[in-house]
Prior knowledge:
Elements: E1 2-7, E2 10-12, E3 18-26, E4 33-39, E5 46-51, E6 57-59, E7 67-72, E8 77-82, E9 91-99, E10 103-106, E11 110-114
Parallel strand pairs: 2-11
Antiparallel strand pairs: 1-3, 3-8, 4-5, 4-9, 5-6, 7-8, 9-10, 9-11
Amino acid sequence: QVQVVESGGGLVQPGGSLRLSCAASGSIFNIFHAAWYRQAPGKQRELVASITSGGGTNYADSVKGRFTISRDNAKKQVYLQMNMLNVKDTGVYYCNVWNIPVFDSWGQGTQVTVSS
């Protein structure tokens, strides 16, 4: 079983930065894909960014050029560097780690609030 824990959320002013971390533990093996999702109040969860086991990345149009997803395989961690944050980035950010059909795990989420 794979456990996922997010951290790094908080309150930040518009234009500021945050770095989210996602730590995976358990029987994760060495090959996994990962993604960050977010859910704003009253809205559906949406994909923010993803990274494959080989390091290929994909971003939602709304965050391209501002967010960067990365990973440290040795530490089994995934990161989301978020720059130039705006109020529309507010929401709960979730980390998803998977290697289907072996596992598909989600964290509990970390709150990001962008407000002046």
